[in-house]
Amino acid sequence: MNNFDGKKLSLNHLPGKLLRKIRESKGYTQKYVAQGILRQSTYSKIEREEAEPAASKLFAILDRLEMTVEEFLFIQEKYTYSRKGKILYSFVNQKYNVPDELEKLKKEADDYLTEFEDTVVKDIQSIYESLIVFGRTHDIKLARKYVQPVWDRIEAFDEWRLTEIYLVNNIMFFFNADTAIYISSRAIDQLKKYEGFNTSAKLRYNLKFNLVYLFMDSKNYDKALTALENLIPYTKELKKHDMLAVCYARKGVSLIKSGDEKGEEWISKGLNILDIIEEYELKNLLKEEIHSFIN
């Protein structure tokens, strides 16, 4: 199970009454839900909260109810995320690295860690700290100090799961270009085994999107342009208008740095899109990025 689904599955107490409510709302009988999984009498005990199923049996029951573990846990928490789940959800879905907003997110992690020990939340706390420091000082060496332990821990793993890939996607920028490109490429390779898993497509896109910046940062503008040729049509297909604007601007920068003056047109095109969709904060951040490459 993906740790970033927003919940931690706990079988200490399975809410059997919730299972019954879901089953009845779909018009299913106990016999239908239990068929091929366990005895109907055993399933009846689960709904009465007199028995606990093995995790594999629970997953099969939820599948029969056309429900993911994530959705079940979300409903269990009265249609909201758990405290840790909110921290993970905010981390995965943060859009822009604005220090004041990151401070708020970091405080949630800080408060959680005063009560609980949690490796992933600790990593997130460190990543927020590095992003805040870099946003305010632009001192990449100082910022790297906070995420180095995160990378040291994850690098030692033979295999990365989605949790680790989400984390490395947010720290690779703090390392030198070769290391960053290695991290990104390894993450994309590790994602191959998740082909078809619903959340992996978004993560794969984000990694490829960020890889363009890494190519630009290492002055590999030809590689950046090649990557964008594949990324721009896919971004259009996904209707990610804000990301499409960034892709256009980065294509423009890469063309200019390759000696093609037509790059100015692409930059203007990207900034105009952000005006149309009223993403003014992103526009300012993008203009800073453009300025850092061209001037």
From TrEMBL:
Signal peptide: none
Organism superkingdom: Bacteria
Recorded GO MF terms: DNA binding
SUPFAM superfamilies noted in UniProt: lambda repressor-like DNA-binding domains (SSF47413), TPR-like (SSF48452)
InterPro entries: Cro/C1-type_HTH, HTH-type_regulator_Rgg, Lambda_DNA-bd_dom_sf, TPR-like_helical_dom_sf, Transcription_activator_Rgg_C
Residues of the HTH cro/C1-type domain: 19-72
Designated name of the protein: Transcriptional activator, Rgg/GadR/MutR family, C-terminal domain-containing protein
UniProt source species: Marinilactibacillus piezotolerans
Organism lineage string: Bacteria, Bacillati, Bacillota, Bacilli, Lactobacillales
